[in-house]
Amino acid sequence: MKITSAEFVISAVRPDQYPIDALPEIALAGRSNVGKSSLINRMINRKNLARTSSQPGKTQQLNYYRINEQVYFIDFPGYGYAKVSKTEREAWGKMIERYLRDRDELKLVLLIIDIRHAPSKDDCLMYEWLKHFEIPTCIVVTKSDKIPKSQWDKQIKLVKTTLQADPRDTIIRYSSETGEGRDQLWGHIMQTIGERGSKTDDSHSNAEDAGTIAE
């Protein structure tokens, strides 16, 4: 995917603040500090466009990034950070739920999971919610550079088992450090927004070498 333009557009908290140009939207969900902003920066080949922070819970809005004038990435607030107040967590939850339930432009949610750990209770709840409402989902297992290659299959299996993952959902192994999985993830995104999520046999060829895990 050649990136010709990428820009931060708005931090939204209400539907009346969402962009109105009807471009397809790809949302990124995951626990605090899982690396959503780093993933965005690697996907668009920019170092600091998406706001990264060592302080969990910093993202408190839906951050919109417009890519190539053809798609938005939306960085969600991270969940599961204990130091965020109950009131803030409830407000974030309502904001995200309203967006996911009502936003027609939403075409795909990337559920970001750290390969080093089993999915958390919050990860499982998010996945269950997405499946219940039949929202297209891609599981992105990130930080693959942090563990030996010999452990990849074991950890991917742990993710699948813990989430009770739907075998129809694509799982992509990813690293924001090395760029592993970037091309496969862009391919899946463009296929989803261009072909309404249909899959071809070629999309899963050489899956193990490419970083895409499929049943």
TrEMBL record:
Its cofactor is Mg(2+). Transmembrane segments: none annotated. Pfam families: MMR_HSR1 (PF01926). Residues 22-195 form the EngB-type G domain. Residues 195-215 are annotated as: Disordered. Gene3D superfamilies: P-loop containing nucleotide triphosphate hydrolases (3.40.50.300). Keywords: Cell cycle, Cell division, GTP-binding, Magnesium, Metal-binding, Nucleotide-binding, Septation. One of its GO terms (cellular component) is cytosol. Residues 196-207 have a biased composition (Basic and acidic residues). GO terms for biological process: division septum assembly. One of its GO terms (molecular function) is GTP binding. Belongs to the TRAFAC class TrmE-Era-EngA-EngB-Septin-like GTPase superfamily. EngB GTPase family. Necessary for normal cell division and for the maintenance of normal septation. HAMAP family: GTPase_EngB. This is Probable GTP-binding protein EngB. The gene is engB.
